[in-house]
Amino acid sequence: MFEHVETRPITVVKSADFPQTDLPEFVFIGRSNVGKSSLLNAVTNRKKLAYTSGAPGKTQTINFYLIDEKFYLVDVPGYGYARVSKKAREAFGEMIERYLTTRETLRCVYLLIDMRHDPLEDDVIMVDYLKQMDLNFKIVLTKADKLSNNQQASQRAKLAKGFVLASDDFIPTSATTKLNIDFLRADILSQL
Questions:
Q1: Model's pTM, two decimal places?
Q2: 41 lies in which domain range?
Q3: Measured between alpha carbons, how far is 14 from 133 in angstroms, rounded to an integer?
Q4: Which residue from 63, 98, 115, 138 puts its CA 20 to 30 A from 149's CA?
Q5: Alpha-carbon gap, residue 98 to 79, rounded angstroms
Q6: In this structure, what CATH number is given to the domain that contains residue 131?
Q7: Is the residue at 1 inside a domain?
Q8: 106 backbone φψ class: left, alpha, beta (φ>0; ψ -120 to 50)
Q9: Are strands 106-114 and 71-75 parallel, antiparallel or unpaired?
Q10: pLDDT of 11-43, one tens digit each?
Q11: Number of domain units in the chain
Q12: Beta pairing, strands 71-75 & 25-30
């Protein structure tokens, strides 16, 4: 699996253009600059599938990447800080909400959170939203390579308390060192 990755995604700027498909979808969502595109590249084992940048707010469309002609990985604009107008941020939010609430093919939401930070208000709101909507979701902690093992354990405990979840509900990852990338791939495939 993950052998044939369509390198040109279906790019959507409005919900009316969501692809008409019955293939399962797995969405990567999170704050701006949390590492969604980097993680997507790591999971697909492609260096430049999704555009990455050190500046937040680069992803401004919903991108559907067809994997092995069996399922889609979906990259959405980040929430929170972005160098775009308030009107554009609101449009992103509406499009993401429409995606989350209308896609019958959505199998799992992978909520990405930067492991280096304590729970941020936007992330807490997103976890509460996903719980309230009864969506299948998993929390993926990014940039774990930036912390020691002791720091990782401490942060997992803080995040568990902040999100009212068990500390083993988190998947620590690193796009740089490939920590738990195989685990994440296996998790996606187990839901097909």
A1: 0.91
A2: 10-190
A3: 22
A4: 138
A5: 14
A6: 3.40.50.300
A7: no
A8: beta
A9: unpaired
A10: 988 888 999 999 999 999 999 889 998 999 999
A11: 1
A12: parallel
